[in-house]
Fold this protein.
Amino acid sequence: MNSAVHPPVAECHSNLLLAALPSQEIARMLPMLDQVRVEAGQVLCEAGDPIEHIYFPHDCLVSLLGVAEGRMTLEVGQVGREGMLGVTSALGHDTTQVRAVVQRAGNASRMEGARFRSEVERNPALQKVLYRYTDALLAQAIQIAVCSRFHVLEARLARSLLVTRDRLQSNKFHLTHEFLAHSLGVRRVGVTKAASALQQQGLIDYSRGNIEILDPEGLAAAACSCYAIVREAGAMPVADVPVPDVPVPDGHAG
């Protein structure tokens, strides 16, 4: 990771959670924030770790993984420019509940956990934003858990790719079979079969981890109905978030 420097005000506004705060509060928090670079595959925290830093992504994307028995994982949410990593600190938790892995490299503003907790206690505007964002994260996690239990892998993969597309606002991104397997809680061979099925339908192009969504509407039709719910929950609840206009059908269950 590169050496941290204080981010300019304009950089803070690229994170929609920070941008939802009154300008005087952003200016007051600025000296507490460092701008850092995070790289793809970097683990920002493990489940059970002390919350040492809070991250506000600008153009990176972070995958939140629930962990069972130290090795089995399932993605329970994503954090991009609409939110933050470490929000449970505002609820009084001093340890992390998930493994956070950088899915797309980029920049973020970072604050020490102890300073963040002190800031939450004195800042009603920040409290309001964080409570609403926490509610959105919980909605995502609940729906993903339901999706993982009841929907077929092909539909779940389509949902996951579309959510990533919405967060990155791009039809092209990089995700390895291994990363998708960890995210979806399945074996790599399952991801290979599901991705091949979507590729044969002309919905995506997938080669060596490089994914291109060729037919967003068709992929939305292949996804389960959870996509619409997760997509809506992922939009920043306190500010307008530009989300690509992709038709969302009722979907199907396994």
